[in-house]
Structure of Luciferase family oxidoreductase group 1:
Amino acid sequence: MKLSILDQSPISSGSSASDALDASLQLAKLGDKLGYTRYWIAEHHDLPGLASSAPEIMLSYIGAQTNHIRLGAGAILLPHYKPFKIAETFNLIGTLLPDRVDLGIGRAPGGSAEASIALSGNYLEGVRNMPHAVKELLQFLHNSFPQEHMFSKVTPTPVPRISPEVWILGTSEKSALLAAENGTAYAFGQFMSAKDGAGILKKYKEGFADTHAGKTGNSLITVSAICAETTAQAEGIASSQFLWKILSDRGIKTGIPSIDDAKNYRYTKQDIEKIAEMKQNIIVGNPFEVKTALEKLNEDYHVDEIMIVTITHDYQDRLQSYQLISDQFSR
């Protein structure tokens, strides 16, 4: 089973965005050293606690300081942008980092309604146009417009030796079928969905096979996990993330709280119920417990790769979590 990393570049309370982005670099370098398959960084806008608004810039920065790990966006939010500009950007990154670049595409707004308007105007129109935009993006990347098309003479330069691998990210059957129809890889966001992910991935594989001569396509699931030497330590570390989400849902702008902040916070009954709900979608435990849970998900979802997202207050706790998981699987 392959293991990969999804990084949302969290900003811890008491730290700066610069600290968070440096921590992202250190995480990617560790993933490179440990043999993780991919490192993807997300795109968010005007969200307190998350630092990466331009994954393409971070990928270039990180790519210059790593050697083997595949680098990608998880995801570029296509409704905000013109396909040609994305193709240009990722062709350039793919030229700089040959055969190491993934282009993940998503359709979420990535921030508030006001941020979406500031970024691209009519975001909902971009969502409606998503199927067409995906096709156009692929045609630019693969230089496959019909000869009579006005864009057939337009090339998103520079053209890399190997095109970026395109992934569609989602949590619904609609996104899975869009990926299957267009022959792209598919990443299911298990960590932010309560839907039947195994059924959705099955639909993707069946749709891909129907459209592409029996092939099944490339797929992975993204899960939230926190690993520590002991279960108690892991649960303490995870408490920061739970409090951050509770505060964010209330519109309180803050970085990732410390473990002490989480320990001393006065939770309401509704908060406790919310935390119990969040615990259903995160793996927290010691190395053996985390490995067992990941292997179970791998069996349930029938994928060859699991991508792990880990949010902690202490950046060293995050590095250790990925280190412990890697060590457990390498035994």
Q: What stands out?
A: Residues 4 and 131 are 27 Å apart (CA to CA). The mean pLDDT is 96.
